[in-house]
What we know:
The chain is an alpha/beta fold. It has 14 helices and 13 strands. A 6-stranded parallel beta sheet has the order 10-9-8-11-12-13, sandwiched between helices. Strands 4-5-6-7 form a 4-stranded parallel beta sheet, sandwiched between helices. It is globular, with a radius of gyration of 21 Å.
Amino acid sequence: IFANTSWNIYNFRINLIKFLIKKKYNVTNFSGKDKYSEKLNQFDFKNIFFDIKNRDLNIINQILIIFKILYFLYIQKPNVVLSFTIKMNIYIGLIRLIFFNFIFIPNITGLGSSFDKKSKFRSMYIILYKLSFKKANHVFFQNNRDYRYFRKLKIVENNFTIIPGSGIDVEAYKYKKLILNKNIKFLFASRLLKEKGIREYLLAAEIIKKKYKNASFYVLGSLEDEKNKKIEKILLNYHNKKIINYLGVTNDIPHHIMETDCLIMPTYYNEGIPRILIEAAALGRPIITTNQAGCKDICINNYNGFIINKKNLKDLSLLIEKYINLSDEKKNIFSQNGRKLVEAKFNDSIILEKYYHAIENNFKNIWVY
């Protein structure tokens, strides 16, 4: 299993790995080294870590990473390779195309900023995906938009499955009833990227707090790199003015979700299905998010939250105000509906079975080393 970060494996793939081990597969994780690497070593599977920076496009560094992967695959000789994140999907696919024969099953967890129309790398990524997916045995998508986009570009044909994000262990994420009182708490929890809508959230918080003294706004998340210094400065300014409360980063996101009344994610990033939205719905928290692919799969307008237009501050402010003025009964209905939606469509057992069938159905294509 390949991913850019150990954080990705620890937070999103552990249940998949445990499931595959129960099915008698030998599993090795190959992921970027970070503070979650040590946590992965506590589990009963092999880990190999490497240094990689998500936004590093230095050609020499990327060639070195590819050679590390090549060496690893030569030594390990896997029957099946599952990949996540853009770089790993492309690198594994190119290696599969040129060097080795194994079952290759990538997962498109969102297109990211690389596929924005303004991105200078968009054409390059399209070419790389076309090459790297030529011998993909099966491709998982997390929303219909990404699938249609790849189908239009003729990157995939019929060897695909659309799954509900990374799913969630509904037994681990127990429903917690809303505690309704006069003080209403909103939470933004995500990487603090401009595309995730952090600026819109801050501006909306400023607007709402002028009218509703009982509304509190919280921010949880990390600043990804040096490019976010401007956002960091703005964020800390809003924190110092007591417009928002910046909580930093945490290893216990569910706790913070349960401490709030509503989760807000005004993203216009090319998401798969944001895990944070699934977690919020599972825990019984209403959602306010955008009409973005993936987001509107887990938030149904007027059912378990509200859908706003992307980059629309007025829309966001009006719907935050609308949520504040909802009756307690309506807020509880939103809360219960979110949980029902997760149990019906986002239980990770659904996804685990789809992975198992994709692997088993492709074993006939194995080439013996």
